[in-house]
Amino acid sequence: MEAIHDHAMIGDCRAAALVSRRGTIDWLCWPRFDSPSVFGALLDDRAGHWTVSPTAPFESTQRYLAGTNVLETRFVTGAGVAVVTDLMPVASEQEKRRVLVGEHEVLRVIRCERGEVEIETLLRARPGYGLRTARMRDAGKLGIRVETGQGTMMLRGDMPLAISADGLVRGRTTLHAGERAHLSLVLACDWPAVLPPLGAWSNETVERSARWWRSWLSRLTYDGPSKGAVERSALVLKLLVFAPSGAVVAAPTTSLPERVGGDLNWDYRFCWLRDASLTVRALFGLGLDEEAESFVSWLLHSTRLTQPELQILYDVHGNVPRSEREIGELSGYLGSRPVRVGNAATDQVQLDVYGEVIDAVAHFVRRGGRLDRETERMLRAFGEHVCRHWQEPDEGIWEPRSGKRHNTHSRVLCWVALDNLLALHERGYLRRAPTERFSANRALIREEVEERAWNPRLQSYAAQLDGEQLDASTLLLSWYGYEPASSERMRRTYAQMRARLGAGDGLLYRYRSSDCPEEGAFGICSFWGAEYLALGGGSAEEAQELFQTLCGYANEVGLYAEEIDPETGRALGNFPQAFTHVGLINAALSLSERLRGEEPHARGVPRGQDTEARVLP
Amino acid sequence: MNVDVVSWLLWGFVGTIVLTTLMAGSQGLRLTRMNIPYMLGTMFTPSRDRAKLVGFIVHLVNGWIFALLYVIAFHSLGLATWWLGGLIGLVHAAFVLTAGMRILPGLHPRMASEQHGPTVTRQLEPPGFLALNYGVRTPVTVVVAHLLYGAILGGFYGV
Q1: Could you tell me which of A115, A50, A107 has the C-alpha nearest to residue A76?
Q2: Cα distance between residue A63 and residue A554, in whole Å
Q3: CB spacing of B127 vs A192 below 8 angstroms
Q4: Measured between CB atoms, which of B33, B46, B115 is closest to A98?
Q5: Chain B residue at shortest CA distance from A205
Q6: pLDDT digit string (tens) for A532-554?
Q7: Which chain B residues have a beta carbon less than 8 Å from that of A194?
Q8: A292 contacts A284 by C-beta, under 8 angstroms
Q9: Mind listing the pLDDT tens digit for each residue in A318-337?
Q10: Where are the alpha helices (DSSP H) in A390-512?
Q11: Less Cβ crowding at N or C end of chain B, within 10 Å?
Q12: Which ipTM score applies to this complex?
């Protein structure tokens, strides 16, 4: 089993695969992010994989083709050098009208750069999270057919492929300098498959996909520090956007542990509303207005069935995911059991989501959007719901399974919800808002937070009202406009956080508690630290230094998991994690604004309702 | 022989819609990947979205043409009942699954052949014998759909 850290991701904005440095695809849920896996060796060696690597001992490195999500794994053996190019092809709408394009494909192109390299491919499909044995049949020129239960996979290659008695598909070929081999795996679920030819067509597909990614990336308007890291984070985010709906999944994996050998193993292949505002600001900040607006639209329209109550998480089409279950047959990543699919957090109460969703809508308005009547009605209903429930305890942003508490972050986000609604009303975007009720509740929340969340003994905002623990989420008080970063209380909170939650070298734990003993430093919290400094909690130089230190924790291809092991600096938890990359982007945006002498993360809502402005799709 | 044109067009239309709905439902339930409108549409355009629309129109016209053959059979036998329609539907399905699927790769400009595999211009998976490439339950859904198509025509068309 290969380390989480030693993987890269490829995808087609519908599903994603993880490819290890040894040339193995050991995670792929097909055809959708939350479909059962067909390759799951990352969670159990027996759960399916697809390897392409030299037969001789080798050393390998990975990189993405510049500006793309097309991956290259370079193998150096004693006799030669081979490069495997991995991708899940994408095409523009124009190209889709011009040529037949399949629904789902993983394409692997092997080229020998130097000398002579014998390449072997081994494919073992184990659908249904490794619990099912795939039925396979050699269909001659049409390839090896593999029935997965989700559809039919067809593997073709321009090397001889054979099904062995132990359920493996094997193939070997020897390449000399300049020669190439191609392998294509397509999945057909609802339609007759489209079987792309190999050879020159495969090479063109690589070019076409690379062109598509570069064209997409050219829309980025960011020009600030660590541009490469920001671009890579944008490319990761794009891969985690489910294109048909605009939803952003938290990560493409389940049950990669927050503590190796432990049981903090959760399924992240869903969309968390908690991420809404931070994600939307990151997308708008990079100039990716189309993705940001699709996401806001998804937030508002996909949650209609439960409004005005909002669930914590939804699947990519806005349905509540199936209930959580454990797969006892899988050994888990390095023995980290249980492996879970589905997420029981869906039954929790998280009051902060109202603030996050409303703030996401406010970002849309700040970018020149306007609200239609239906959205106005929804927002008013959210505001009423907040007024009725903000005094209640909830599970909070980190979804611990130890019960409800009066979480400071949730209270402040209720304040953010009402504050944004009032600002939208004052600026003419939200009509018929019950302003007195919203305003009175906003004042009550602030009064309670200032009296009960500020702990004079700790000299810090505490994680809970009247609490003694710290929580990195209170760094967001400045981000959401509740308290200036330069205020005394925020400065002291930050200092306490560094002292008590610091994991060394700029890293931060999200909290220290018996709920999550020995977990790693939290990726996004560490970036919140850098952004807090950029927002005015420190000097621009301090912010930049910390930000660049944190950028050093990315893996070889620029990806982050949810957490970072402070001892080794390596990735822990589900991977790659949208939330961490969102944190990186937001910190970079605020830092670059600060360096340009602008107000970082300005939150003002423009006055008036421009009738020419865009409405949500 | 006096063909009742209105009845032919009406029940030919209804039968085709029921057949299409049944096949689409079978696809949704993962019983088959056979999608006749898509297969017909890709004869005219590579665009998936356009193919579905064009294919549906072609499929509808085909439904009327086949309905006319059913109607002629009813008139020549002097009988139109649901079971006779179903019987003709059975023969129709057997023809589609055997000869029809066999000759389709030769007729379809974008369909690959089982013997030569995909090429730059021919990439669509061929159906194979009894259309089994599209799932082992495909023949059953095709037979049931055509039985129903024939039964509707036989049951509602008056000779």
Answers
A1: A115
A2: 13
A3: yes
A4: B46
A5: B120
A6: 999 999 999 999 999 999 999 99
A7: 123-125
A8: yes
A9: 888 888 999 999 999 999 99
A10: 408-426, 435-448, 476-479, 488-501
A11: N
A12: 0.88
